[in-house]
Design goal:
This is Mechanosensitive ion channel family protein. This protein is an alpha+beta fold. Helices cover about 50% and strands about 15% of the residues. Helix 6 packs antiparallel against helix 7, helix 6 runs antiparallel to helix 8 and helix 7 runs antiparallel to helix 9.
């Protein structure tokens, strides 16, 4: 009895699980059907049967058929690609052909439409060979064909998949997108100028129309001439303005201001005077956005440079190490701020350009798939540039050198005149400019004569005869040194004999100077005065050489007398 009961329980459990699986399968199948298409009772009954040329099986073929039919001016047939559910049967034929014609004009003049980018499968399943898209393998019942802007608003043209009863589902322009056509046509439709163009010039020739091949060069010549006029006007303004920061700023913004004016005029002409095909319009749009962003960024940087120049002249003045450390540190920080502003500006302009031309949307997640490859390429190709940029920021923060510091780099006395992204500009003592890559500069040892203080010990050496009076020379040295304005801390003036040979002695004199370059001049001046003092008053102090003429041994003293020869010694100044 118990055994039969257990078998009965097991049987009921199996039946319950089977029934639940069937119910789940039916529910899942129902949800899948509703996600694959829109179920409707009828489609475009006022248009009649769709022609054979109207292939509406996939999104790609539906748009391709629409463009082919409108290119042949068969607008009634092309209207079968629109879902005219918002119109009555009597209005569908008349309004449908007109809306198809307008949509064809919008596609031709609006955003550049690439039919190959549309899904080629009936279910419009999301495909991604890289596997980066989280929605890969998902079927869709509507897809975006194009996204356009009119009157500051964005309008999407979308395809929807519709099924009537047991018929095969078809892809049509959705009713909401059909309602956008008049608004978009007002924005992207033919301009007033095209009404006066003969019909034969409106035929297509390649990717453009015949009249566009003639109008675009004339259009560009007019825009360039307008930009040249703006450039000349700004050049004259820079001469009319009083000399100063305003004239300097005006002289530096001629080209970017002309580009901004050209961009604005071009956009105005495209909006109100002439309307080109989508290929030309998209190209102009990308160029205008790029040029406008670059010009605005350049003017901003010129403004920052002008402000920095004004601060430099007012606060620091001439860039050298005679200015206080705080002022030179401030100027170094200003240069670091300039590089930071450049970095932010370039990054912002790049993001703005990419966002405006919708590269992220067109490329999609494939950018992420190729990010690692791009990172490797940028790392290899831009290693030197990136290294210089990082080194320049390191110099700005650590400040081993500052603007105006005097350094000895590879044996040359140089003032640090500017620290830029990739190079350092050094001004030599003879007013030459050395342009040194930042990484090269930081990898070489250099001597910063201004890192703590501009004061510097200088010394000069004089070789004199052993009979020279050092006290007299020391007093004269102190006297001459005190006459020099750049010699400071007179209690540190020193003069001593530092070396000696059999015929001469070396006298070294030390003096403290206010800065290295002035110290060099003071050293030269004191040396000249000491040499002139010795020459005029004690010429016997010059070192002399003793030359023995006799070949006899003078130490023995008898050989010369026996031989009748005379020993003689000649003393002459050393050359």
């Amino acid at each position: 009895m118990k055994e039969n009961s257990s078998w009965l329980a097991w049987g009921l459990l199996v039946m319950a699980m089977t029934f639940s699986n069937l119910c789940a399968a039916q529910t899942q199948g129902g949800e899948s059907e509703s996600e694959r298409w829109f179920t409707v009772d009828a489609l475009n009954t006022g248009l009649g049967e769709a022609p054979e040329e109207a292939n509406r099986v996939t999104p790609r073929e539906s748009i391709r058929s629409f463009l082919d039919l409108t290119g042949q001016e068969e607008y009634e047939a092309a209207a079968h690609m629109l879902n005219l559910a918002d119109f009555s049967e009597g209005e569908q034929r008349e309004r449908g052909s007109e809306l198809a014609r307008q949509l064809a004009e919008i596609f031709q003049r609006g955003e550049w439409l690439s039919v190959s980018d549309l899904p080629g499968r009936e279910d419009a399943v999301i495909e991604d060979s890289s596997g980066q898209n989280p929605r890969v393998g998902e079927t869709r019942r509507n897809v975006e064909v194009s996204s356009m802007q009119a009157n500051g608003e964005t309008y999407d043209i979308r395809l929807g998949r519709y099924r009537v009863g047991d018929q095969e589902p078809v892809w049509l322009i959705m009713p909401i997108s059909v309602s956008y056509i008049p608004v978009l046509y007002e924005q992207y439709g033919p301009s007033m100028l095209e009404n006066y163009i003969p019909k034969r010039f409106q035929a297509s020739f390649g990717i453009l129309r015949i009249w566009e091949w003639i109008a675009i060069p004339l259009f560009l010549v007019f825009v360039v001439m307008f930009g040249w006029g703006v450039h000349r006007l700004i050049g004259l303004m820079s001469k009319w303005l009083p000399s100063g920061m305003s004239s300097i700023f005006a002289s530096q913004i001629g080209t970017p201001a002309a580009l901004i004016a050209m961009s604005l005029v071009t956009q105005m002409l495209l909006d109100y005077v002439v309307s080109f095909s989508a290929v030309a319009t998209t190209t102009f749009r990308v160029l205008l956005i790029s040029i406008l962003a670059w010009a605005v960024g350049t003017i901003s940087l010129r403004l920052v440079d002008t402000i920095m120049l004004r601060l430099t002249r007012r606060i620091v003045g001439e860039i050298d190490d005679t200015k206080p450390r705080d002022q030179r540190r401030l100027l170094t920080s200003l240069y670091a701020l300039r590089r930071l502003i450049i970095l932010i500006t370039v990054t912002g302009v790049s993001i703005y350009i990419l966002g405006q031309i919708q590269l992220f949307e067109s490329l999609g997640l494939s950018i992420l798939a190729s990010a690692s490859v791009l990172a490797v390429l940028v790392g290899v190709a831009g290693q030197a540039v990136l290294g210089n940029i990082l080194s320049s920021f390191q110099l700005s923060f650590a400040k081993p050198i500052r603007i105006g510091d005097l350094v000895i780099f590879e044996g040359q006395w140089c003032y640090v005149e500017g620290i830029f992204y990739t190079f350092i500009r050094l001004r030599t003592w003879d007013e030459r400019r050395l342009i040194v890559p930042v990484t090269y500069f930081t990898s070489k040892p250099f001597e910063n004569l201004s890192v703590k203080s501009t004061k510097m010990y200088r010394f000069l050496e004089v070789s004199l005869h052993l009979s020279a009076d050092i006290d007299v020379l020391r007093n004269k040295f102190i006297e001459f040194a005190k006459e020099e304005d750049s010699v400071i801390e007179h209690h540190k003036l020193l003069c001593y004999v530092t070396a000696q040979t059999g015929t001469a002695q070396t006298v070294t004199c030390y003096l403290m100077t206010s800065d290295p370059m002035a110290g060099w001049a003071a050293e030269m001046s004191v040396r000249e005065k000491l040499l002139a003092f010795i020459r005029d008053n004690y010429p016997e102090w010059w070192p002399r050489e003793i030359v023995v003429i006799s070949h006899n041994d003078i130490a023995r003293g008898t050989q010369g007398k026996n031989s009748g020869e005379v020993d003689s010694v000649e003393v002459k100044p050393s050359e």
